[in-house]
Amino acid sequence: MSKTSNKGGKTRSNEEVFAGFQSLRNEQRQLANKISELEMDLNEHKIVIETLHAVEPKRKCFRMIGGVLLERTVAEILPELETNKERLPSAIQALNEQLARKGQEINDYIEKHDIRVQRGAQHSAEEPSQDSSSAKSNVLVASG
Q1: Angstrom distance (rounded) from CA 21 to CA 105
Q2: Total domains in the fold of the chain
Q3: DSSP string spanning 39-60?
Q4: Considering the domain boundaries, does residue 65 fall inside one?
Q5: How many angstroms separate the Cα of 133 from the Cα of each of 6, 76, 82, 111, 114?
Q6: CA angle 33, 80, 71 (to 5 degrees)
Q7: Which residues lie closer than 8 Å to 79 by C-beta, 6 or more apart?
Q8: Alpha-carbon torsion, ordered 90, 91, 94, 96, to 10 deg
Q9: pTM
Q10: Residue 37 sits in which domain range?
């Protein structure tokens, strides 16, 4: 492997470029996973709130917060759940904006380092030739 990527003024090896790309992709996956987790929490809050509306307010109720089980009444827990349910969409929206910015950051990184992403089994007769132009670009092969 040769040293490439002179666009930013610094010379970086293909391994360093690939590691930076993988790091950005991992951050993007983490954001997507967090968004998914919060959307599931929002759905759970909706289900629990619907269920608790049908229960008498003085009834004993348990709530798990950070691994600790709290004993309260339905009347105490219901307003807290409704407040959390109202806040979750704004948190999800903020994470979606971060995810969009991370996607743009990845695209900028790909452009800056002249990276071509190929999927595992899709490279066929269009293999890059070993001329001077192909020596200047990085190729990442993503499996799956």
Answers
A1: 10
A2: 1
A3: HHHHHHHHHHHHHHHTS-TTSE
A4: yes
A5: 13, 68, 59, 15, 11
A6: 100
A7: none
A8: -100
A9: 0.72
A10: 12-122+130-142
Residue 104: inside a domain: yes
Instruction: Report the CATH number at residue 39.
Output: 1.10.287.370
* pLDDT tens, the chain, 144 aa long: 444 444 444 567 888 998 999 999 999 999 999 999 999 999 999 999 999 999 999 999 999 989 999 999 999 999 999 999 999 999 999 999 999 999 999 999 999 988 887 776 554 444 444 444 444 566 666 655
Token pair in block for residue 47: 């289900």
Residue 86 forms part of a structural domain:
yes
Torsion of CA 93, 98, 99, 103, to 10 degrees: 140
Domain contains 23? yes
